[in-house]
Design a protein that fits this description.
Layout (H helix, E strand, L loop, with lengths): L3 E8 L4 E6 L2 H9 L13 E10 L1 H13 L1 H11 L2
Antiparallel strand pairs: 1-2, 1-3
């Protein structure tokens, strides 16, 4: 079983992106290079503001969905990172 991580990124415009990866540092570099998800292309640079894991793949997918649906949680992350 591989160890997956859930991560949340934030850009300078205050837009967040949530995803899962086996290697968060590599995934962040790919997002910033324009090779990440379509949503992140042209919206960077991105910075890492939150990670969770390691988790199994299914648990990581469920946690990713939960974070995406939780606007309060994402707002707290954004506020904590801008102080």
């Amino acid at each position: 079983m591989k160890d997956w991580f859930v991560y949340v990124l934030l850009n300078g415009a205050g837009i967040s992106y949530t995803g899962i990866a086996l290697d968060v540092a590599d995934r962040l570099a790919r997002h910033n290079a324009g090779e990440g998800a379509k949503f992140t292309r042209g919206r960077g640079p991105w910075r890492l503001i939150h990670t969770e894991g390691p988790l199994g793949h299914g648990d990581a997918l469920r946690r990713e969905a939960a974070i995406k649906a939780d606007s309060r949680f994402k707002a707290k992350l954004k506020t904590a990172r801008t102080l």
